[in-house]
Input
Amino acid sequence: MNASTSEPPSILLVDDEPEILHSLKGLLRREFTLHTAETGQQALQILRQVSIQVIMTDQRMPQMTGAQLLGQARAISPDTIRILFTGYADIKAVVDAVNEGQVYRYLTKPWDPDELVEILTSATLEHQRRKQLQAILQTARGLCERMLQSDLVGGVQDEVTKLNDQIQQINEV
Output
């Protein structure tokens, strides 16, 4: 579950084989809010409409490979954690995925159910950690801008204390 809300983390599963999606939904439906797509275009449409924390896609699909999808997904939703899986030992797919989509993990089919849940949970926690770091950076940027605009140092200690508290929270995740 997402620490900031009671909503389960949102996962987008992409595979051109409906049986695989059905199997994944059966395995993951209790831990995550699931969205599914059978094509890369459907997946991109979902990413434009829904806040997704993790996208997990098959590599070998018609019209668009998983690596191509993850590259386009990165442009639409840069904060989304990207995972690629395939049933084939395809080193080119791995290289493309890393270069185009900056993948978090590469998995092979068949997957171990417990390991898959663990990986997706880890990915959602990584998403949450990155969002917290972005918030800290925004706070720090604002602090720096205020300090540049003013000669007053009063209140800076309060801001530093807030930043330290946020950093401590991230370290606890």
About this structure: The chain has a mean pLDDT of 83. The chain has six helices and five strands. The CA atoms of residues 21 and 171 lie 35 Å apart.
